[in-house]
Design brief:
TIM Barrel, 2 domains, 24% helix
């Protein structure tokens, strides 16, 4: 999980092909003639939550004056293709889901995965045996079983596998799902502990490589296709929970000498392998170490990242993403985890939680990210369950005592992207003329243009959406996020 140290028929085709972080491409000029703008708004100190809030028309508008605030859209310049948005299907989420009444389970599934009434998640992540957001520590083999003859996922059949199947069904029968380990079994590690960091012992490199393939094949026999894996969750963080340390050289050597060849040998060459899976701070150094090695590049699909480089609330290091994207445009960037915390029910409605999502998603997409994966999709009223008391927020919480669902404003902020941007969309230029407006934009394969504009300041801001000499007038309320769908 995260680096929190408490002191104390298009998506399937897309997912099966090589995703690239392309440089800007030029396409034919986009015309807004005959098109309308449909507006959806979430705003602080209002009742607006991903609410339809009007329609706009375009009018002729030449060069805007300096005092006319604008967001300039250029659909003729396209960048990376969009993979999807989703969240992690952990043991904690599965156990919490199982405690809900049937009607609330269906409400939850529709809220996240229905493309019309919900926010249309298409991406997911799950854990390979236990992580901190499990109620206990467990693996899939008996101690010392180097040949993995005892491998089984019986533990997951109680909650997690049925939960993932429910999610897949709610998502229309398919989900782009990747899996991550938090640690090898204790007996494979230098510290003989599944917790508290340590390293994978060289004697068990091959056994651990085989473990991934066993997991993929076993889950697929259970009816859950695995799109890809990351090698290690947060490989530079020694945590009180499941964790394991790899330097960049150790991770690349494990991939090119063991995991990559094993995946190919086992007929799993089509599965995507994600490197790093940690924060933005070291991402460029890790990328250079990996991708300058051709033997690594032939196995590695791309690089994953989290947002915990400054958990105290300081500025996140978004600019590092563009450096990686510029240096390695053929290696996709994927946001693989983020959450807010530590959990405090008294602060669950604070507006800052949603704004952190909006700010990160806009900057990450503008930096070249092809997809964005939240942490737990569902947690209980304590911010768990969690076997090391590492409680945090999820966009949706269940009060397991009353059976009610609690929707945080982060759920709506995420929905401003996931509901409208479809897999296969291309990012386009969206440029604001004032710093209080953050924006990104995509053009879907059906030709609709989706523009997200977030106002993170306490300033009501009238502005124009400007495209090729025509503009639609609108307003960003204080501390709001708006999605403009042009069709």
């Amino acid at each position: 999980m995260k680096k929190i140290i408490y002191v104390s028929l298009a998506l399937f085709m897309y997912a099966c092909t090589e995703t690239k972080n392309e440089s800007a491409q030029t396409t034919p000029e986009f015309s807004v003639d005959g098109k309308k703008v449909f507006v959806y708004t979430t705003a602080d100190s209002t009742n607006l939550r991903l609410a339809s809030s009007g329609e706009l028309d375009f009018k002729e508008k030449g060069q805007p004056f300096e005092n006319e605030i604008s967001v300039f859209i250029d659909p003729s310049k396209t960048y990376q293709s969009f993979l999807g948005i989703g969240g992690a299907l952990t043991d904690a989420s599965a156990e919490t889901f199982a405690k809900l009444p049937k009607d609330k389970q269906q409400e939850f599934l529709k809220a996240y995965y229905n493309k019309e009434s919900g926010i249309g998640y298409t991406l997911g992540r799950t854990n390979i045996h236990s992580c901190d957001f499990s109620s206990d520590t467990y693996t899939y083999v008996t101690d010392g079983d180097k040949d993995l003859k005892s491998f089984n996922v019986e533990h997951d059949k109680k909650y997690r596998i049925p939960f993932i199947k429910e999610v897949m069904n709610a998502a229309g029968g398919k989900l782009t799902l990747f899996a991550s380990p938090w640690s090898p079994p204790a007996w494979m590690k230098s510290n003989n502990d599944i917790l508290h960091g340590g390293k994978l012992k060289p004697d068990f490199y091959q056994s651990w490589a085989n473990y991934y393939t066993k997991f993929i094949k076993t889950y697929e026999k259970e009816g859950i296709p695995i799109w890809g894996i990351s090698i290690q969750n947060e490989p530079m963080a020694t945590q009180t929970w499941e964790s394991c340390i790899y330097t960049a050289d150790e991770e690349k050597d494990f991939l090119k000498n063991f995991l990559g060849p094993t995946m190919h040998k086992e007929g799993l060459a089509d599965k995507k392998i994600i490197m790093w899976d940690h924060n933005r701070d070291l991402i460029y150094q890790r990328a250079v170490t990996y991708f300058n090695d051709p033997d690594v590049s032939k196995y590695a699909w791309g690089i994953g990242f989290h947002w915990y480089e400054d958990w105290s609330g300081g500025e996140q290091m978004f600019s590092n993403l563009k450096k990686v994207n510029d240096a390695f445009p053929d290696k996709p960037l994927l946001f693989t985890e983020g959450c807010n915390g530590p959990f405090n029910m008294q602060q669950i409605n604070d507006w800052k939680w949603g704004e952190r999502y909006g700010k990160s998603m806009i900057n990450d997409f503008n930096g070249g990210a092809v997809g964005w994966t939240d942490w737990n999709v569902l947690l209980d009223e304590t911010g768990g369950p969690n076997h090391v008391q590492n409680f945090c927020y999820a966009p949706v919480h269940a009060d397991t005592k009353t059976g009610q669902l609690i929707y945080m404003n982060s759920y709506y902020y995420i929905g401003h992207f996931s509901k409208f941007i479809k897999p296969g969309a291309k990012r386009i230029v969206s440029s604001p003329s004032r710093s209080q407006l953050l924006t990104t934009a995509f053009k879907n394969e059906d030709g609709t243009v989706v523009v997200v504009v977030m106002n993170e300041k306490n300033i009501k801001t009238p502005f124009m959406l400007w495209i090729n000499g025509k503009a639609a007038e609108t307003t960003a309320l204080p501390h709001s996020i708006n999605t403009y769908v042009i069709k």
